[in-house]
Amino acid sequence: MALLGADVRLTPHRREVFEVLQGSTDHPTATDIFTRVKDRSPSISLATVYNCLEHLSSAGLIKQVHLERGQSRYCANLHEHVHFHCETCGKVTDAHPAAGFDPAKFWNLPAGTKITRTELAIHGTCASCATKG
Amino acid sequence: MALLGADVRLTPHRREVFEVLQGSTDHPTATDIFTRVKDRSPSISLATVYNCLEHLSSAGLIKQVHLERGQSRYCANLHEHVHFHCETCGKVTDAHPAAGFDPAKFWNLPAGTKITRTELAIHGTCASCATKG
DNA sequence: TGAACACTTTAGAATCATTCCAATTCTAAT
DNA sequence: ATTAGAATTGGAATGATTCTAAAGTGTTCA
Q: What is the residue range of B37's domain?
């Protein structure tokens, strides 16, 4: 399977990791994914999960997300989107653009800079936590 | 010293950590800061540097930045800005807005969501690395 | 078919960043 | 000066991730 120039041989483990991530909307961490994949393939090791995530993300099939100190999270949503992180309950949700929009245009980057990707993280309180508080 | 609602007693160590960070434009990590502060105060410990950074950032005097897996970086630039991260040389530079811009307006967040801060990271190749490559 | 080779997977060890802890020192206000 | 609360320390502990060496799984093609 090829995408964005890089190849990944889609071994059973890699496929499972990918499928588990595609079936998750909560931006799981590597250990979350490990736990979920283990239900189907009890023999898989955490090292393999890391390895699979590494290969899948360098092939562009998934994305790594870094929102806070601690564990990386992963995301199989390849559409243009940003991440909303609730500082109260910790949940991370995707938000999609209201209109086609290139954030890079709004910032003065030095001439000659090449952009490969942008990551926008919005931190705050989600509607549900805001109501309770 | 008070700002944004929180207080910090500005002890000598905290002041030094803050000054070192203010004098740095390279978004140093905690150990980078530890090394630099050690030149002036050889007895300071890494735990104290972490402690100072924690207090300074919860008081709103500095910001933590999470761009990639691994160490957190810190930044004393409180003006509205985004971070450009060169994937080739690893340098992180600030970019300031071309025009007043509220990223939150462009994304469909659920009604009732409260935003406390946004962090935009732009990854790519800096002009200097792009020329060499 | 099967020898050779490359890639994948594994468990556990190692590393690295960060946090915790208990003891000590400092500061500010009685 | 005394005392309480906060700051600082070094080292231990934790947690996430990466490394390593060995074993497994194909795949190629003579």
A: 2-75
Instruction: Judge whether A109 and B84 are in contact, CB under 8 Å.
Output: yes
Q: Which residue of A has its CA nearest to B99?
A: A106
Q: Identify which of B67, B87, B110 has the shortest CB distance to residue A116.
A: B87
Of B75, B92, B117, which marks where a domain is finished?
Answer: B75
Residues B16 and B62 reside in one and the same domain: yes
- Per-residue confidence in pLDDT tens, chain A, 133 aa: 433 345 778 999 999 999 999 999 999 999 999 999 999 999 999 999 999 999 999 999 999 999 999 999 999 999 989 999 999 999 999 998 876 666 667 788 999 999 999 999 999 999 999 998 6
**Residue A52 near residue A12 (C-beta atoms within 8 A):** no
Tell me the chain B residues in contact with residue A124 when contact means C-beta distances shorter than 8 Å: 113-117
Q: Look at residue B64 and tell me whether its pLDDT is greater than 90.
A: yes
Tokens standing for residue A94: 């995707």
Find out whether B53 and B74 touch, Cβ atoms under 8 Å.
Answer: yes
